[in-house]
Write a structure and sequence with these properties.
Layout (H helix, E strand, L loop, with lengths): L23 E4 L6 E2 L2 H7 L15 E5 L5 E3 H5 L19 H4 L12
Antiparallel strand pairs: 1-2, 1-3, 3-4
The structure holds zinc ion (3 copies).
The site of one zinc ion has 9 residues, from helix 1.
Length: about 110
Amino acid sequence: MKILGNVIDDQGRCKHYFKKQDTISIKFKCCGEYYPCYKCHEENSNHKIQPWKKEDFHEKAIFCGVCKSELTIHEYMNHTNCKHCHTLFNPNCNKHFHIYFETDNNNPTCTF
Ligand SMILES: [Zn+2]
Ligand SMILES: [Zn+2]
Ligand SMILES: [Zn+2]
């Protein structure tokens, strides 16, 4: 799997998010490319992020950098760890869900 952006190790950490639990990369709906985070996408592409729609949540768009398997968006959002290797997802990522995925409670005042 090719991960674009500013990856700093072979488990999918990038220069923005490099804590122990930051091992997930996300495929972006807009370009179909995997990036470790939205900042990497912002700095390395020339277009706006298009969030995944709810009807697309069965698509495999999450890449576990530890066991190198792809998960669907559902499998990622509804679990706290990878179903294959049980690596914990970073719980703080859900603060940014509305950037990547269509949600019911988008918060337009959030400035990250
Ligand atoms: Zn894109
Ligand atoms: Zn990044
Ligand atoms: Zn895994």
